[in-house]
Design goal:
Strand content: under 5%
Distance between the termini: 57 Å
Number of strands: 0
Largest sheet: none
Length: 424
Protein backbone atom coordinates (compact mmCIF):
# COMPACT_ATOMS: atom_id res chain seq x y z
CA UNK A 1 0.00 0.00 0.00
CA UNK A 2 1.51 3.37 -1.02
CA UNK A 3 2.19 6.14 1.48
CA UNK A 4 -0.50 8.29 -0.14
CA UNK A 5 -3.06 5.47 0.15
CA UNK A 6 -2.17 4.96 3.81
CA UNK A 7 -2.50 8.66 4.53
CA UNK A 8 -5.84 8.74 2.70
CA UNK A 9 -7.22 5.84 4.74
CA UNK A 10 -5.91 7.37 7.98
CA UNK A 11 -7.62 10.69 7.26
CA UNK A 12 -10.99 9.03 6.75
CA UNK A 13 -11.11 7.40 10.19
CA UNK A 14 -12.55 10.64 11.60
CA UNK A 15 -14.45 11.95 8.57
CA UNK A 16 -16.76 11.10 5.67
CA UNK A 17 -15.37 9.40 2.57
CA UNK A 18 -16.14 11.60 -0.48
CA UNK A 19 -17.84 10.08 -3.51
CA UNK A 20 -14.70 10.60 -5.59
CA UNK A 21 -12.82 8.10 -3.42
CA UNK A 22 -15.39 5.27 -3.61
CA UNK A 23 -14.15 1.83 -4.70
CA UNK A 24 -15.66 -1.19 -6.48
CA UNK A 25 -18.02 -3.29 -4.36
CA UNK A 26 -16.12 -6.39 -5.52
CA UNK A 27 -13.11 -5.52 -3.36
CA UNK A 28 -15.29 -5.10 -0.28
CA UNK A 29 -17.15 -8.33 -1.07
CA UNK A 30 -13.77 -10.10 -1.32
CA UNK A 31 -12.86 -8.92 2.17
CA UNK A 32 -16.16 -10.21 3.54
CA UNK A 33 -15.82 -13.44 1.56
CA UNK A 34 -12.44 -14.02 3.19
CA UNK A 35 -13.71 -13.10 6.64
CA UNK A 36 -16.88 -15.21 6.37
CA UNK A 37 -15.35 -18.18 4.59
CA UNK A 38 -12.94 -18.86 7.38
CA UNK A 39 -12.46 -21.72 9.77
CA UNK A 40 -14.85 -20.02 12.21
CA UNK A 41 -17.63 -21.10 9.81
CA UNK A 42 -16.43 -24.70 10.08
CA UNK A 43 -16.29 -24.25 13.86
CA UNK A 44 -19.85 -22.91 13.97
CA UNK A 45 -20.93 -25.93 11.92
CA UNK A 46 -19.20 -28.17 14.43
CA UNK A 47 -20.95 -26.38 17.27
CA UNK A 48 -24.33 -27.00 15.65
CA UNK A 49 -24.04 -30.78 15.70
CA UNK A 50 -23.51 -30.79 19.48
CA UNK A 51 -27.26 -30.14 19.79
CA UNK A 52 -28.85 -30.77 16.38
CA UNK A 53 -29.03 -33.50 13.77
CA UNK A 54 -27.61 -32.78 10.34
CA UNK A 55 -30.90 -31.69 8.72
CA UNK A 56 -31.70 -29.22 11.48
CA UNK A 57 -28.10 -27.99 11.43
CA UNK A 58 -28.50 -27.12 7.73
CA UNK A 59 -31.84 -25.39 8.36
CA UNK A 60 -30.37 -23.38 11.24
CA UNK A 61 -27.35 -22.39 9.17
CA UNK A 62 -29.33 -21.12 6.18
CA UNK A 63 -31.92 -19.31 8.34
CA UNK A 64 -29.24 -17.69 10.49
CA UNK A 65 -27.21 -16.53 7.49
CA UNK A 66 -30.23 -15.03 5.72
CA UNK A 67 -31.22 -13.20 8.91
CA UNK A 68 -27.68 -11.86 9.25
CA UNK A 69 -27.85 -10.41 5.76
CA UNK A 70 -31.37 -8.97 5.91
CA UNK A 71 -31.48 -7.69 9.50
CA UNK A 72 -27.90 -6.60 10.08
CA UNK A 73 -25.62 -6.35 7.04
CA UNK A 74 -27.86 -4.66 4.46
CA UNK A 75 -29.43 -1.94 6.69
CA UNK A 76 -26.14 -1.07 8.44
CA UNK A 77 -24.11 -1.43 5.25
CA UNK A 78 -26.49 0.93 3.47
CA UNK A 79 -26.05 3.55 6.20
CA UNK A 80 -22.26 3.28 5.90
CA UNK A 81 -22.33 3.45 2.09
CA UNK A 82 -24.80 6.36 1.97
CA UNK A 83 -23.18 8.45 4.70
CA UNK A 84 -19.55 7.51 4.01
CA UNK A 85 -18.90 7.04 7.75
CA UNK A 86 -17.43 4.11 9.65
CA UNK A 87 -19.39 2.38 12.41
CA UNK A 88 -17.99 4.53 15.20
CA UNK A 89 -18.70 7.89 13.56
CA UNK A 90 -22.26 6.69 12.91
CA UNK A 91 -22.43 5.69 16.56
CA UNK A 92 -21.73 9.28 17.62
CA UNK A 93 -25.06 10.30 16.08
CA UNK A 94 -26.87 7.45 17.84
CA UNK A 95 -25.31 7.06 21.30
CA UNK A 96 -23.40 10.34 21.70
CA UNK A 97 -19.77 11.27 21.07
CA UNK A 98 -18.41 9.73 24.29
CA UNK A 99 -20.91 6.89 24.67
CA UNK A 100 -20.13 5.53 21.22
CA UNK A 101 -16.62 4.74 22.37
CA UNK A 102 -18.17 2.25 24.79
CA UNK A 103 -21.18 1.01 22.82
CA UNK A 104 -20.13 0.82 19.16
CA UNK A 105 -16.40 0.73 19.79
CA UNK A 106 -16.07 -1.68 22.69
CA UNK A 107 -19.11 -3.90 22.08
CA UNK A 108 -19.10 -4.17 18.27
CA UNK A 109 -15.39 -3.97 17.51
CA UNK A 110 -12.89 -4.17 20.35
CA UNK A 111 -14.19 -7.10 22.43
CA UNK A 112 -15.33 -9.20 19.45
CA UNK A 113 -12.21 -8.21 17.50
CA UNK A 114 -9.82 -9.21 20.27
CA UNK A 115 -11.85 -12.35 21.02
CA UNK A 116 -12.02 -13.46 17.38
CA UNK A 117 -8.33 -12.74 16.90
CA UNK A 118 -7.55 -15.00 19.84
CA UNK A 119 -9.87 -17.80 18.68
CA UNK A 120 -8.63 -17.77 15.08
CA UNK A 121 -4.96 -17.70 16.08
CA UNK A 122 -5.60 -20.60 18.48
CA UNK A 123 -7.11 -22.73 15.72
CA UNK A 124 -4.35 -21.87 13.24
CA UNK A 125 -1.62 -22.61 15.79
CA UNK A 126 -3.18 -25.98 16.60
CA UNK A 127 -3.25 -26.77 12.87
CA UNK A 128 0.46 -25.94 12.50
CA UNK A 129 1.23 -28.03 15.57
CA UNK A 130 -0.61 -30.96 13.99
CA UNK A 131 1.49 -30.58 10.84
CA UNK A 132 4.99 -30.19 12.18
CA UNK A 133 5.30 -31.77 15.61
CA UNK A 134 4.49 -34.86 17.58
CA UNK A 135 4.64 -32.89 20.82
CA UNK A 136 2.81 -29.73 21.81
CA UNK A 137 4.32 -26.48 20.57
CA UNK A 138 0.94 -24.80 20.12
CA UNK A 139 1.81 -21.86 22.39
CA UNK A 140 4.95 -21.13 20.37
CA UNK A 141 2.94 -21.17 17.16
CA UNK A 142 0.30 -18.90 18.74
CA UNK A 143 2.97 -16.27 19.34
CA UNK A 144 4.51 -16.57 15.87
CA UNK A 145 1.26 -16.62 13.93
CA UNK A 146 -0.35 -13.98 16.15
CA UNK A 147 2.34 -11.51 15.13
CA UNK A 148 2.48 -12.61 11.48
CA UNK A 149 -1.28 -12.45 10.94
CA UNK A 150 -1.65 -8.80 11.88
CA UNK A 151 0.78 -7.46 9.28
CA UNK A 152 -1.70 -6.87 6.38
CA UNK A 153 -4.18 -5.20 8.76
CA UNK A 154 -1.48 -2.75 9.85
CA UNK A 155 -1.31 -1.37 6.31
CA UNK A 156 -5.03 -1.08 5.63
CA UNK A 157 -7.88 -2.18 3.41
CA UNK A 158 -5.94 -2.51 0.13
CA UNK A 159 -3.47 -5.00 1.61
CA UNK A 160 -6.35 -6.91 3.16
CA UNK A 161 -8.36 -7.25 -0.06
CA UNK A 162 -5.39 -8.72 -1.95
CA UNK A 163 -4.90 -11.37 0.71
CA UNK A 164 -8.57 -12.29 0.47
CA UNK A 165 -8.39 -12.64 -3.32
CA UNK A 166 -5.60 -15.18 -2.82
CA UNK A 167 -7.51 -17.07 -0.11
CA UNK A 168 -10.67 -17.75 -2.15
CA UNK A 169 -9.21 -20.73 -4.09
CA UNK A 170 -7.97 -22.13 -0.78
CA UNK A 171 -11.45 -21.86 0.69
CA UNK A 172 -12.95 -23.79 -2.21
CA UNK A 173 -10.27 -26.48 -2.06
CA UNK A 174 -10.54 -27.21 1.66
CA UNK A 175 -14.34 -27.39 1.40
CA UNK A 176 -14.07 -29.99 -1.39
CA UNK A 177 -11.38 -31.96 0.49
CA UNK A 178 -13.50 -32.04 3.64
CA UNK A 179 -16.64 -33.16 1.84
CA UNK A 180 -14.84 -35.91 -0.08
CA UNK A 181 -13.20 -37.18 3.12
CA UNK A 182 -16.53 -37.35 4.94
CA UNK A 183 -18.10 -39.35 2.11
CA UNK A 184 -15.13 -41.75 2.06
CA UNK A 185 -15.50 -42.46 5.80
CA UNK A 186 -19.28 -42.68 6.10
CA UNK A 187 -22.25 -42.52 3.75
CA UNK A 188 -24.61 -39.57 3.49
CA UNK A 189 -27.41 -41.74 4.86
CA UNK A 190 -25.33 -42.41 7.99
CA UNK A 191 -24.64 -38.70 8.37
CA UNK A 192 -28.32 -37.79 8.13
CA UNK A 193 -29.22 -40.57 10.59
CA UNK A 194 -27.02 -39.00 13.29
CA UNK A 195 -28.73 -38.16 16.60
CA UNK A 196 -26.91 -35.74 18.97
CA UNK A 197 -26.40 -36.63 22.62
CA UNK A 198 -28.30 -33.49 23.68
CA UNK A 199 -31.30 -32.12 21.81
CA UNK A 200 -31.56 -28.40 21.08
CA UNK A 201 -34.08 -26.43 19.03
CA UNK A 202 -33.51 -24.95 15.60
CA UNK A 203 -33.78 -21.53 17.27
CA UNK A 204 -30.74 -22.46 19.39
CA UNK A 205 -28.86 -23.25 16.19
CA UNK A 206 -29.87 -19.99 14.52
CA UNK A 207 -28.67 -18.06 17.57
CA UNK A 208 -25.30 -19.81 17.42
CA UNK A 209 -24.89 -18.92 13.72
CA UNK A 210 -25.86 -15.30 14.37
CA UNK A 211 -23.46 -15.12 17.30
CA UNK A 212 -20.62 -16.40 15.11
CA UNK A 213 -20.99 -13.56 12.57
CA UNK A 214 -23.10 -10.78 14.05
CA UNK A 215 -20.15 -8.59 15.00
CA UNK A 216 -18.79 -8.78 11.45
CA UNK A 217 -22.20 -7.92 10.02
CA UNK A 218 -22.59 -4.99 12.41
CA UNK A 219 -19.29 -3.32 11.59
CA UNK A 220 -20.12 -3.51 7.88
CA UNK A 221 -20.07 0.33 7.60
CA UNK A 222 -16.29 0.19 8.14
CA UNK A 223 -16.10 -1.37 4.68
CA UNK A 224 -19.28 -0.38 2.82
CA UNK A 225 -18.40 3.29 3.35
CA UNK A 226 -15.97 2.74 0.48
CA UNK A 227 -18.71 1.71 -2.01
CA UNK A 228 -21.64 3.42 -3.73
CA UNK A 229 -24.54 4.27 -1.42
CA UNK A 230 -27.46 2.32 -2.82
CA UNK A 231 -29.28 -0.79 -1.61
CA UNK A 232 -28.49 -2.82 -4.74
CA UNK A 233 -24.72 -2.38 -4.42
CA UNK A 234 -24.78 -3.17 -0.69
CA UNK A 235 -26.92 -6.25 -1.33
CA UNK A 236 -24.54 -7.53 -4.02
CA UNK A 237 -21.67 -7.06 -1.57
CA UNK A 238 -23.40 -8.94 1.24
CA UNK A 239 -24.82 -11.74 -0.88
CA UNK A 240 -21.46 -12.41 -2.51
CA UNK A 241 -19.35 -12.00 0.60
CA UNK A 242 -21.59 -13.71 3.17
CA UNK A 243 -24.26 -16.10 1.87
CA UNK A 244 -22.27 -18.27 -0.55
CA UNK A 245 -19.20 -18.99 1.61
CA UNK A 246 -21.06 -19.15 4.91
CA UNK A 247 -23.63 -21.71 3.76
CA UNK A 248 -21.04 -23.96 2.10
CA UNK A 249 -18.50 -23.95 4.91
CA UNK A 250 -21.01 -24.26 7.75
CA UNK A 251 -22.68 -27.24 6.05
CA UNK A 252 -19.38 -29.02 5.34
CA UNK A 253 -18.14 -28.10 8.83
CA UNK A 254 -21.18 -29.80 10.36
CA UNK A 255 -20.61 -32.93 8.28
CA UNK A 256 -16.90 -33.12 9.12
CA UNK A 257 -17.51 -32.52 12.81
CA UNK A 258 -20.28 -35.11 12.90
CA UNK A 259 -18.01 -37.72 11.31
CA UNK A 260 -15.16 -36.82 13.66
CA UNK A 261 -17.34 -37.28 16.77
CA UNK A 262 -17.98 -40.88 15.74
CA UNK A 263 -14.24 -41.55 15.95
CA UNK A 264 -13.54 -39.88 19.26
CA UNK A 265 -13.39 -36.08 18.89
CA UNK A 266 -15.14 -34.48 21.89
CA UNK A 267 -14.79 -30.81 20.85
CA UNK A 268 -16.28 -30.77 17.33
CA UNK A 269 -15.94 -26.99 17.02
CA UNK A 270 -12.11 -27.31 17.11
CA UNK A 271 -11.49 -27.79 13.40
CA UNK A 272 -7.83 -28.73 13.91
CA UNK A 273 -8.86 -31.75 16.01
CA UNK A 274 -11.54 -32.62 13.46
CA UNK A 275 -9.20 -32.55 10.46
CA UNK A 276 -6.54 -34.52 12.32
CA UNK A 277 -9.12 -37.17 13.29
CA UNK A 278 -10.34 -37.40 9.69
CA UNK A 279 -6.78 -37.90 8.48
CA UNK A 280 -6.83 -35.04 5.99
CA UNK A 281 -3.43 -34.26 4.39
CA UNK A 282 -1.00 -31.59 5.52
CA UNK A 283 -2.24 -29.37 2.68
CA UNK A 284 -5.55 -28.91 4.54
CA UNK A 285 -3.68 -27.64 7.60
CA UNK A 286 -1.82 -25.12 5.44
CA UNK A 287 -5.15 -23.95 4.05
CA UNK A 288 -6.50 -23.54 7.59
CA UNK A 289 -3.69 -21.14 8.40
CA UNK A 290 -4.43 -19.10 5.28
CA UNK A 291 -8.16 -19.00 6.01
CA UNK A 292 -7.58 -17.93 9.61
CA UNK A 293 -5.38 -15.12 8.34
CA UNK A 294 -8.24 -13.63 6.32
CA UNK A 295 -10.45 -13.44 9.42
CA UNK A 296 -7.89 -12.16 11.90
CA UNK A 297 -7.00 -9.18 9.73
CA UNK A 298 -10.63 -7.97 9.71
CA UNK A 299 -10.94 -8.41 13.48
CA UNK A 300 -7.73 -6.51 14.16
CA UNK A 301 -8.44 -3.77 11.60
CA UNK A 302 -11.90 -2.87 12.93
CA UNK A 303 -10.79 -3.02 16.56
CA UNK A 304 -7.87 -0.76 15.65
CA UNK A 305 -10.21 1.78 14.04
CA UNK A 306 -12.44 1.74 17.13
CA UNK A 307 -9.56 2.36 19.52
CA UNK A 308 -8.17 5.13 17.30
CA UNK A 309 -11.60 6.75 17.29
CA UNK A 310 -11.96 6.43 21.08
CA UNK A 311 -8.46 7.31 22.25
CA UNK A 312 -6.65 8.90 19.31
CA UNK A 313 -3.01 8.07 18.55
CA UNK A 314 -2.27 5.64 15.70
CA UNK A 315 -4.51 3.05 14.00
CA UNK A 316 -1.32 1.17 13.04
CA UNK A 317 -0.23 0.74 16.66
CA UNK A 318 -3.70 0.11 18.07
CA UNK A 319 -4.17 -2.66 15.50
CA UNK A 320 -0.88 -4.18 16.62
CA UNK A 321 -1.88 -3.94 20.30
CA UNK A 322 -5.18 -5.72 19.53
CA UNK A 323 -3.14 -8.57 18.05
CA UNK A 324 -0.90 -8.78 21.10
CA UNK A 325 -3.88 -8.93 23.48
CA UNK A 326 -5.45 -11.57 21.23
CA UNK A 327 -2.26 -13.63 21.45
CA UNK A 328 -2.33 -13.41 25.26
CA UNK A 329 -5.97 -14.59 25.37
CA UNK A 330 -5.13 -17.43 22.99
CA UNK A 331 -2.30 -18.52 25.28
CA UNK A 332 -4.78 -18.61 28.18
CA UNK A 333 -7.11 -20.95 26.24
CA UNK A 334 -10.03 -18.77 25.12
CA UNK A 335 -11.07 -21.39 22.55
CA UNK A 336 -12.45 -23.57 25.37
CA UNK A 337 -15.20 -20.97 25.81
CA UNK A 338 -16.12 -20.74 22.10
CA UNK A 339 -19.90 -21.31 22.36
CA UNK A 340 -20.47 -19.10 25.47
CA UNK A 341 -18.45 -16.39 23.70
CA UNK A 342 -20.78 -16.58 20.68
CA UNK A 343 -23.88 -16.39 22.88
CA UNK A 344 -22.66 -13.24 24.64
CA UNK A 345 -21.80 -11.60 21.31
CA UNK A 346 -25.25 -12.43 19.94
CA UNK A 347 -26.95 -10.96 23.01
CA UNK A 348 -25.18 -7.60 23.25
CA UNK A 349 -24.12 -6.83 19.66
CA UNK A 350 -27.60 -7.30 18.15
CA UNK A 351 -29.25 -4.44 20.11
CA UNK A 352 -26.52 -2.02 19.01
CA UNK A 353 -27.63 -2.67 15.44
CA UNK A 354 -31.28 -2.34 16.43
CA UNK A 355 -30.78 1.13 17.93
CA UNK A 356 -28.75 2.39 14.94
CA UNK A 357 -31.28 1.08 12.39
CA UNK A 358 -34.30 2.41 14.32
CA UNK A 359 -32.78 5.87 14.78
CA UNK A 360 -31.66 6.21 11.16
CA UNK A 361 -34.64 4.77 9.29
CA UNK A 362 -37.64 5.29 11.60
CA UNK A 363 -36.87 8.19 13.96
CA UNK A 364 -34.75 10.60 11.92
CA UNK A 365 -35.78 9.49 8.40
CA UNK A 366 -32.29 8.85 6.98
CA UNK A 367 -30.60 11.77 8.72
CA UNK A 368 -27.90 11.82 11.38
CA UNK A 369 -28.32 14.39 14.19
CA UNK A 370 -25.98 15.33 17.00
CA UNK A 371 -26.67 13.55 20.30
CA UNK A 372 -24.15 15.33 22.54
CA UNK A 373 -21.78 13.27 24.67
CA UNK A 374 -24.21 10.67 26.07
CA UNK A 375 -27.66 9.92 24.71
CA UNK A 376 -29.20 7.93 27.52
CA UNK A 377 -32.30 6.54 25.78
CA UNK A 378 -30.17 4.66 23.25
CA UNK A 379 -27.77 3.45 25.97
CA UNK A 380 -30.60 2.24 28.21
CA UNK A 381 -32.52 0.43 25.48
CA UNK A 382 -29.30 -1.20 24.22
CA UNK A 383 -28.62 -2.58 27.71
CA UNK A 384 -32.22 -3.68 28.28
CA UNK A 385 -32.22 -5.47 24.91
CA UNK A 386 -28.96 -7.26 25.67
CA UNK A 387 -30.21 -8.48 29.04
CA UNK A 388 -33.51 -9.65 27.51
CA UNK A 389 -31.60 -12.27 25.49
CA UNK A 390 -30.95 -14.14 28.74
CA UNK A 391 -34.42 -13.62 30.22
CA UNK A 392 -36.90 -14.41 27.42
CA UNK A 393 -37.18 -18.22 27.41
CA UNK A 394 -38.26 -18.76 23.79
CA UNK A 395 -37.42 -17.95 20.14
CA UNK A 396 -33.91 -16.70 19.18
CA UNK A 397 -32.04 -14.76 21.91
CA UNK A 398 -30.13 -12.56 19.43
CA UNK A 399 -33.33 -11.61 17.61
CA UNK A 400 -35.18 -11.16 20.91
CA UNK A 401 -32.61 -8.61 22.05
CA UNK A 402 -32.82 -6.88 18.66
CA UNK A 403 -36.64 -6.65 18.79
CA UNK A 404 -36.78 -5.51 22.42
CA UNK A 405 -34.28 -2.70 21.79
CA UNK A 406 -35.90 -1.63 18.52
CA UNK A 407 -39.48 -1.59 19.81
CA UNK A 408 -38.57 0.01 23.13
CA UNK A 409 -36.47 2.74 21.51
CA UNK A 410 -39.12 3.48 18.87
CA UNK A 411 -42.00 3.64 21.36
CA UNK A 412 -39.99 5.88 23.68
CA UNK A 413 -39.51 8.45 20.91
CA UNK A 414 -43.11 8.23 19.78
CA UNK A 415 -44.34 8.75 23.35
CA UNK A 416 -41.97 11.63 24.10
CA UNK A 417 -42.74 13.37 20.79
CA UNK A 418 -46.48 13.19 21.51
CA UNK A 419 -45.90 14.47 25.02
CA UNK A 420 -43.99 17.48 23.64
CA UNK A 421 -46.84 18.19 21.20
CA UNK A 422 -49.37 18.12 24.06
CA UNK A 423 -47.22 20.49 26.15
CA UNK A 424 -46.98 22.90 23.21
Amino acid sequence: MSNSAKEQEKSYIQERIPSSQKKSWIGVAAIYFGMTAAISSFSAGGGLITGLNLTNSFISAVAGIVLLLLIFFIPLGFIGAREGYNTYLIGEYIFGKKATNLITGLVIAVLPGVGWYAVQVSIAAEAVNQMFTTGNLTNLFIIVLGILFVIPALFGITSMSWLDYISIPAILLITILGFVKVISISSLSDAFAYVPSTNQSIFWGINLIIGASVAGACFSPDYTRWIKGDVKTVTYTGATGIIAPKVALTAVGSMMALTATTIGVDEPWDISQVLAALGLPGLSMILIVLLQWTTTIVAAYSAGIALTKAVGWSRFWWTFIVAIIGVILALFGIIKYFIPFLNILAAFVSPVAAIIITEYFFINKRKLTNKGSFYWPSIIFWFVGGCSAFIIPFFIPAINSFIVSMVGYYLYHKFTSKTKEIVK
